[in-house]
């Protein structure tokens, strides 16, 4: 039998040769580190469903971010656990709430670190939903004003990027208008544009203390079966003023990331969510897979699909793998 002259294995023979022809690369600056901050001092409260993840007080958060910055991480995404909750999520709009305090501390001590703040109400409402409840469901338009107020509170504290995750219709446009009118036209919006209703969010709700007290979030988060709708959601958010668009969850939505990359000439973020993280940690903890190998493979797959930025709880560990 006559073999072809091109042998694909020639360039796979050694680590150096493989590195020379590697098509997809990552570096620590591509990762965004999600973190949970809560009231108190000297606190690092373990999240049992997410090994290695903690709710931290502001002082501990600053030190964690300092270490992450030393690792090469350039951006963090903050989620807050407030002092109190009520039906309207009022503490989300408190100028002295947990997120504004955290932002001010980080910008004072780590000014070069990009601080992204999640804008939603689910952590702050006593019912655990992402907006104002009327007739047993979230009232879209009544929620917009609260999201805009929350965004302004974060902007005044010094947030570098505002990231609305609530999935209300027209929230990007409403927040953009509010920011512009208050002198924050320079602040970008990272929109959770294609955020699917997903069972992969379960551990996050433990970390953020935000499980809904009734029903679910399927009336405002997307049906996982809908690819074309995801493209429409992304296009609408871009029209309304989004600067970066996000697909969530990442691994179950690689096809969505790829199509978004092909269609839209905008920066794309993808969120390797809590369930993805916890599954990998659990399997590695049982000796069923090699943790660093799977971290590397999963993040490379997300980048290969087209993501420019990856939000991952593995950010610090991944930084050492891709340095």
Q: How is the secondary structure organized here?
A:
Layout: H1 15-20, E1 31-37, E2 44-46, E3 54-56, H2 58-70, E4 75-80, H3 98-109, E5 114-119, E6 133-134, E7 137-138, H4 140-157, E8 161-164, H5 171-181, E9 190-195, H6 202-207, H7 227-240, E10 244-248, H8 254-263, E11 268-272, H9 274-285, H10 291-305, E12 309-312, H11 315-321
Helix pairs in contact: 2-3, 3-4, 4-5, 7-8, 8-10
In summary, what is this structure?
With 323 residues, the protein is α/β, with parallel strands linked by helices. It has 11 helices and 12 strands. Helix 8 (254-263) links the parallel strand 10 (244-248) and strand 11 (268-272).
Number of strands: 12
Low-confidence stretches: none
- Secondary-structure-derived class: alpha/beta
**Overall mean confidence score, pLDDT:** 97
Name the CATH architecture: Alpha-Beta Barrel
Largest sheet: 10 strands, mixed
Look at the structure and name the CATH superfamily: Aldolase class I
Number of helical segments with 4 or more residues: 11
Beta content comes to 15-25%
What's the overall geometry?
Answer: globular
Query: Which CATH class?
Result: Alpha Beta
Domains counted in the coordinates: how many?
1
State the order of secondary-structure elements, H for helix, E for strand.
HEEEHEHEEEHEHEHHEHEHHEH
Helix amount:
25-40%
Could you describe the 3D structure shown?
Helix content is 38%, strand content 16%. The chain contains 11 helices and 12 strands. The protein has helices at 15-20, 58-70, 98-109, 140-157, 171-181, 202-207, 227-240, 254-263, 274-285, 291-305, 315-321, and strands spanning 31-37, 44-46, 54-56, 75-80, 114-119, 133-134, 137-138, 161-164, 190-195, 244-248, 268-272, 309-312. The relative contact order is 0.14. The protein has one domain: Aldolase class I (TIM Barrel). The longest helix is centred in the middle third of the chain and has 18 residues, at 140-157. The model has no long low-confidence stretch (mean pLDDT 97). Strand 10, helix 8 and strand 11 form a beta-alpha-beta unit. The strands form 2 sheets. Strands 1, 2, 3, 4, 5, 8, 9, 10, 11 and 12 form a 10-stranded mixed β-sheet that branches. It is α/β, with parallel strands linked by helices and 323 residues long.
């Amino acid at each position: 039998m006559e073999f072809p002259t091109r042998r694909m294995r020639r360039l796979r023979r050694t680590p150096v040769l493989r590195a020379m022809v590697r098509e997809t690369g990552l570096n620590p600056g591509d990762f965004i580190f999600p973190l949970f901050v809560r009231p108190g001092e000297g606190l690092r409260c373990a999240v049992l469903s997410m090994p290695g993840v903690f709710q931290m007080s502001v002082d501990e958060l600053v030190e964690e971010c300092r270490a992450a910055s030393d690792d090469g991480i350039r951006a963090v995404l903050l989620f807050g656990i407030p002092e109190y909750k009520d039906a309207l999520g009022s503490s989300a709009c408190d100028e002295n709430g947990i997120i504004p305090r955290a932002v001010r501390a980080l910008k004072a001590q780590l000014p070069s670190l990009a601080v992204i703040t999640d804008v939603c109400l689910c952590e702050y409402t006593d019912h655990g939903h992402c907006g104002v409840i009327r007739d047993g469901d979230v009232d879209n338009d009544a929620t917009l004003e609260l999201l805009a107020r929350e965004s302004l509170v974060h902007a005044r504290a010094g947030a570098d990027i505002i990231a609305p995750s609530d999935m209300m219709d027209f929230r990007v446009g409403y927040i953009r208008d509010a920011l512009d009118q208050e002198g924050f036209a320079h602040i970008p919006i990272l929109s959770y544009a294609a955020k699917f209703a997903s069972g992969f969010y379960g551990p996050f709700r433990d970390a953020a203390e935000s499980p809904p007290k009734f029903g679910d979030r399927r009336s405002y988060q997307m049906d996982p079966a809908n690819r074309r709708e995801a493209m429409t959601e992304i296009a609408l958010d871009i029209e309304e003023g989004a600067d970066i668009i996000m697909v969530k969850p990442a691994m179950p939505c690689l096809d969505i990331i790829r199509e978004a990359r092909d269609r839209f000439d905008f920066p794309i973020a993808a969120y390797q969510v809590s369930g993805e993280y916890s599954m990998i940690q659990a399997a590695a903890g049982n000796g069923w897979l090699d943790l660093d190998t799977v971290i590397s493979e999963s993040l490379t797959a997300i980048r290969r699909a087209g993501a420019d930025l990856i939000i991952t709880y593995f950010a610090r560990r991944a930084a050492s793998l891709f340095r």
